[in-house]
Amino acid sequence: MGNDDRLRFLLEELRLVRAARGVTQDDLAKRIKWSSSTVAMVETGARKPPTGFWALVDDALQTGGTFQRLANQLGTPLWKVEWGSAESNASALRSYEPLVVPGLLQTEAYARAILGDAGMLRQEEVERHLADRLKRQEILTRENPPQLFAVLDEGVLHRPVGGPTVMRDQLHALAKATEEPHIWVHVVPLTVGAYPGLNGSFVVAVDPENRLTGYLDNQLHGDVIDGAEEVAALQLVWEAVRGQALPQGQSTDLIMKVAETWI
């Protein structure tokens, strides 16, 4: 279901609930203190619901927050729903990042700096995305967590995200994560020249039946990859990237060495 289909579904529910309560568009407009023309345009899809619209509708129609909850759920992009399911159900995750620490291993301060400084988001959006990211990290501390194999470029360790204190704490946390038996972190050193990973970050999720799902991120949205040929291509890139990385012990030593430079 695309975003337009989701909105049409929600608006149809609004019309049905409003009619069932014997409330006209004019009545609803008066209750939420908006113009009748605005309510009419929203209901017909001529205008997107303004911020706060669904909360006002819930209050006016006494629906107990139903429309706001539906809006929150249906407003989630389909790719995010699909990848969230693949990630949470994975038995193993193979992650590569050339620019930043992988989201599942970010500290709260580092994640806030990424979202706030690089994400170009409003403050309330930063906090919402931050809460989502920290919630996702719970898969690593749950019972039967997935095996996480994370490879990152050494440049990630040197990029001053959030300042020296944030970076030092983040690198210490990254090294400490490797003490967990289900987490591997490998670093591709700067001495490696051009290699396939520099074309962009990706994650491959492996489910308990050994089915693979890929994920690519970009400036606007994420792409979930489940076609056999495309996933196979990602697997080849993963093998090439992993082959360029240092073993975990050497990687951890390098992470701690760079951490001590952040003073």
Automatic annotation (TrEMBL):
| Residues of the signal peptide | none
Q: Tell me which stretches of the chain form a coiled coil.
A: none
Instruction: Cite a single Pfam family from the UniProt record.
Output: DUF5753
Where is the HTH cro/C1-type domain positioned along the sequence? Answer: 14-67
Q: Which InterPro entries match?
A: Cro/C1-type_HTH (IPR001387), DUF5753 (IPR043917), Lambda_DNA-bd_dom_sf (IPR010982)
Q: Where are the transmembrane segments?
A: none
Q: What is this protein called?
A: Transcriptional regulator
What species does this protein belong to? Plantactinospora mayteni
